[in-house]
Amino acid sequence: MKKELFAMLGLFAGICMMAQNFTLGTNLIKDRKYQSENRQYFLIFQNDGNLVVYNRRNQPQWDSKTQGQGARAIFQGDGNLVVYNFSDRPVFSTNTVNKNATSLEMQDDGNLVIYNRRGNALWSSYNDPNRNDFGESGDFNKGTYSKGNIYKGFEFVKGEKIYSENFKYYLIFQTDGNLVMYRSGFKQDVWSTATAGKGRRAVFQEDGNLVVYDSSNRAVYNTGVSLSNVDRLSIQNDGNIVIYNYDNQVVWADKR
C-alpha cells in the first residue's frame, strides 16, 4: 500500500513539474493541458495534431499550424521541439537542434521558450511567425495578453508592456516599481500608481483589486475593488484603464 502511495505521489509530482518545465526527451501527451505556474496559460498538443498555447479564456496565442497533420510532439534530446506527422516526418520544428538547449518552459507571461544552459532564449513563441499577435510586430512581441485585457490572478512582470488593441497605449510595471500607462511613441506618462522606488510587485488579484506591494508586502497602491464578479482589467483604445464585471459594467476606472 505504501509503495502504491509513493508511486502515486511521484506521478503527481512529475505532472506538476511538467506543468511549467519540460526536460529534454519529453513527449507531449495529446489533449493534456500543461499549465503555466500562475495558471493563466497552457500548452496543449490537441487531438487534431496542432500544438497550441492558449490563455485562460481559451484564446489561442500561438500554434504550430499542424492541424490534421501532427501525430506526435517531442522536445527532443538534441534540444529541438518537433511535431511529426504519421509518416514520421517533421511538420513543425523550432530549429534549435544542437544549440545546447536544456529546457522548454511554459512561462507565466504566456511565452513558450527554449533556453540553453546559460539561461539564454534560443526560441520563443512570441518571436515565432506563427504567433497570433493580431498582426503587429515590434515591442508587442514582448506582450502577453489578449487584445489589451488581463484577467484575475495575473501578476505583472517588470519591464513588460501590455498594449491596447489599437497599440496606441501600453501599461508597464517599470523596474523602478511604478505601474505606468504611456501613449506609444511618447515619453510622458498619462497615468501611474506613483509607486516609483516603492513597488516590488503588482498583481490583478482574484478579488478584482489591482494592487502594488512594496518589499514588505504592504500595499502602496490599490484600486479598492473587491468584488467576486470582476471579469477583467482593460487597457482601452482611448488610453483609459477600466475594470469590468462579467456583465460588462464598469466597476472602476482610473481618475485623471
From TrEMBL:
Every Bulb-type lectin domain range: 19-127, 147-256
Pfam families documented for this protein: B_lectin
InterPro entries cross-referenced by the UniProt entry: Bulb-type_lectin_dom, Bulb-type_lectin_dom_sf, G-type_lectin_kinases/EP1-like
Alphabetical UniProt keywords: Signal
N-terminal signal peptide: 1-19
Statement: the UniProt record of this protein carries the keyword Signal: yes
Name this polypeptide is given: Bulb-type lectin domain-containing protein
Lineage of the species this protein comes from: Bacteria, Pseudomonadati, Bacteroidota, Flavobacteriia, Flavobacteriales
